[in-house]
Specification:
- The complex is a heterodimer of chains A (112) and B (113).
- With 112 residues, chain A is mostly beta strands.
- Chain A is 0% helix and 46% strand.
- In chain A, the strands form 2 sheets. In chain A, strands 2, 4, 5, 6, 9, 10 and 11 form a 7-stranded mixed β-sheet that branches.
- The mean pLDDT of chain A is 92.
- Chain B is built from no helices and 12 strands.
- In chain B, strands 2, 5, 6, 10, 11 and 12 form a 6-stranded mixed β-sheet that branches. In chain B, strands 3-9-8-7 form a 4-stranded antiparallel β-sheet, with no helix packed on it.
- In chain B, β7 and β8 form a beta hairpin.
- The model of chain B has no long low-confidence stretch (mean pLDDT 92).
- Classes of the chains: A mainly beta (112), B mainly beta (113).
- At the A-B interface, β5 and β10 of A face β5 and β6 of B.
């Protein structure tokens, strides 16, 4: 079955530590996205990538970094510069940029 | 900029009741409109969409009509089930310029037996 996988389901970060969230898709989609969800809030865009080896900042990119070396993978690193990282992180993909987005199951990041 | 406004929740209903969740939007162009559903602890699932004015999206008994004159995309279902309990997000995507999804804050639906 085609779909989007995110791992791990839960992730714990210590103060000053960088952590990386995985997102993989086997839908052959060109575009991929990372969103952050906080309780009672809508989703906010962190980064997006329209094609391999290209990505752009979203609305809240500070403290995050991404890479897009393969079409099927779009990992997100939460750096120590992100002072409030506790949130639910959702990865999405779409066949093309501005087309319908499909979401993975999410990763919940907690700070120890 | 673009924005989406949803009615605040939670919306609490008894099983088999009629559901309406209001959604209005502000956009500069002609956006596509979406409803996504999120079950507890899970990602978002696309529920339905409409890409132009007067289009009706429908799926699993849910419907929403793209009303350009009132800039609305209200979600309706004739008879809700306990399994419909979830958070529902309205979203828009513009076809030009910097364009990804703009989400509303979500509306929680709780259906009791």
């Amino acid at each position: 079955d085609g779909g989007i996988t995110q791992s791990p389901k839960y992730l714990f970060r210590k103060e000053g530590q960088n952590v990386t969230l995985s997102c993989e898709q086997n839908l052959n989609h060109d575009a991929m996205y990372w969103y952050r969800q906080d309780p009672g809030q809508g989703l906010r865009l962190i980064y997006y990538s329209q094609i391999v080896n290209d990505f752009q900042k979203g609305d809240i990119a500070e403290g995050y970094s991404v890479s897009r070396e393969k079409k099927e993978s779009f990992p997100l690193t939460v750096t120590s510069a992100q002072k409030n990282p506790t949130a639910f992180y959702l990865c999405a993909s779409s066949r093309g940029y501005q087309e319908t987005q499909y979401f993975g199951p999410g990763t919940r990041l907690l700070v120890l | 900029g673009d924005s989406v406004t949803q009615m605040e929740g939670p919306v609490t209903l008894s099983e088999e009741a009629f559901l309406t969740i209001n959604c209005t939007y502000t956009a500069t162009g002609y956006p596509s409109l979406f409803w996504y559903v999120q079950y507890p602890g899970e990602g978002l699932q696309l529920l339905l969409k409409a890409t132009k004015a007067d289009d009706k999206g429908s799926n699993k008994g849910f419907e929403a009509t793209y009303r350009k004159e009132t800039t609305s995309f209200h979600l309706e279902k004739g008879s809700v089930q306990v399994s419909d309990s979830a958070v529902y997000f309205c979203a828009l995507s513009e076809a030009s310029g910097y364009s990804t999804l703009t989400f509303g804050k979500g509306t929680m639906l709780l259906v009791s037996p």
